[in-house]
């Protein structure tokens, strides 16, 4: 199997924390499934140091005035994030098109602040009060907290959707990934060495997403995973997502509130042609197949939840229902099961959570699993 044992990856992730300092729902995922030779690019946000290194649990951390700050001691914590600068286009509009066509100065594209570079700093800081629940202990939790360097003040604002369509990913085509293509697997989750193998989601293809690319928790406050990014996003780039405790479509979404103060680092392994600037489509088993479904044939099941949003949407937001779906559909498929339970446990069943983000150096554990470097 292509799976890499999670304990090994977590050990590698923690071992590389100190080195990282020196180095520095849901829309459909519409991948083309064929080589895309268009010029690359990157999402907004400059890199910086990522993780300060492990620390013992117990005390809360503060950023010293920028990024995310938390209270200390027992009782509720107040977590604040920098002023948001984001795109909020209407459904019929595209901020990428607005910039490409020179329409940023038009009044009806004032919702494209991030893409058009028109943020004026007038957005208010967002603060969320969350209970101090201490360290967790589920199979999808990573254990004690580690110290994570907060993002700079004014980092771009974004939000997460989710998907898992079982198709070959855009960055699994060697032509799209100059620093090494992402791994792909056959129906039995065995690595495919031939990068030209067609996607299982196109006629006659047999290449799928490998199950080892499901997300996992490194610690109670830090997780690793993979994501589809907007067209033009460069394969292999990594981004730090600093959750602010709010939901994108429902501000008071309980799961999104539970993520306040947590960080996830994702590597770009796919593109989605309807993924907008600042949106990251997280690769989560049971997250919804979107426009292409390679899962029914690979898994031999038809219970995939809602086409867009997957198990959580099909469960009407019930986390206990989500957990039951994970255990039922992914019995005997450990990587998929753990990745699905990660959504229920570490993410608290969050539905389209918001965050600030920036490009950062890739942790070794992400590169080792995907086969790509930045």
Task: Give a written overview of the molecule.
The protein has 374 residues and is α+β, with helices and mostly antiparallel strands. The protein has a single domain (6-61, 137-370), classed as RlpA-like domain (Barwin-like endoglucanases). It contains 10 helices and 11 strands. The strands form 3 sheets. The protein has a 6-stranded mixed barrel. A two-stranded antiparallel ribbon has the order 1-4. The protein is globular. The two termini are 25 Å apart. The model is unreliable at 1-5, 14-79 and 125-139 (pLDDT under 50).
- pLDDT averaged residue by residue: 77
Low-confidence stretches: 1-5, 14-79, 125-139
CATH fold title: Barwin-like endoglucanases
Calculate the terminal CA-CA distance, rounded to whole Å. Answer: 25 Å
The major sheet is characterized as: 6 strands, mixed, barrel
Q: What is the percentage of strand-forming residues?
A: 15-25%
Please state how the strands of the largest beta sheet are arranged side by side: 5-10-7-9-8-11
* Helix-and-strand structural type: alpha+beta
Determine the number of helices (DSSP H or I, runs of at least 4 residues).
10
């Amino acid at each position: 199997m292509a799976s890499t044992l999670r304990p090994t990856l977590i050990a590698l992730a923690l071992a590389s924390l100190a080195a990282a300092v020196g180095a520095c729902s849901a829309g459909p995922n519409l991948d083309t499934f064929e080589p895309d030779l268009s010029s690359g690019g990157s999402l907004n946000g400059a890199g910086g140091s990522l993780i300060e290194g492990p620390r013992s649990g117990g005390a809360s951390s503060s950023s010293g005035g920028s990024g995310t700050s938390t209270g200390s001691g027992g009782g509720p914590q107040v977590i604040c994030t920098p002023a948001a600068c984001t795109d909020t286009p209407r459904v019929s509009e595209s901020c990428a098109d607005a910039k490409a066509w020179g329409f940023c100065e038009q009044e009806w594209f004032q919702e494209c602040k991030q893409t058009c570079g028109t943020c004026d700093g007038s957005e208010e800081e967002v603060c969320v009060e969350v209970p101090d629940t201490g360290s967790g202990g589920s199979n999808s939790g990573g254990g004690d907290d580690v110290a994570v360097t907060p993002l700079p003040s004014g980092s771009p604002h974004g939000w997460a959707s989710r998907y898992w369509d079982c198709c070959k990913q855009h960055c699994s085509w060697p032509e799209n990934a100059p620093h090494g293509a992402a791994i792909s697997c056959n129906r039995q989750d065995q690595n495919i060495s031939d990068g030209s193998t067609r996607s299982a989601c196109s006629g006659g293809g047999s290449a799928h997403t490998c199950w080892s690319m499901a997300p996992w928790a490194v610690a109670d406050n830090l997780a690793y995973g993979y994501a589809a990014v907007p067209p033009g996003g460069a394969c292999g780039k990594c981004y730090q997502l600093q959750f602010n405790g709010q939901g994108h479509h429902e501000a008071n979404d309980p799961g999104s509130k539970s993520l306040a103060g947590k960080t996830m680092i994702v590597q770009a392994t796919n593109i989605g042609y309807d993924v907008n600037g600042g949106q990251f489509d997280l690769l989560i088993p049971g997250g919804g197949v979107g426009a292409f479904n390679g899962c029914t044939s690979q898994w031999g099941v038809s219970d995939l939840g809602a086409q867009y949003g997957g198990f959580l949407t099909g469960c009407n937001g019930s986390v206990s229902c989500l957990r039951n779906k994970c255990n039922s559909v992914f019995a005997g498929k450990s990587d998929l099961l753990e990745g699905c339970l990660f959504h229920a446990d570490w993410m608290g069943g969050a539905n389209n959570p918001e965050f600030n983000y920036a490009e950062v150096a890739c942790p070794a554990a992400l590169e080792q699993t995907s086969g790509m470097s930045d």
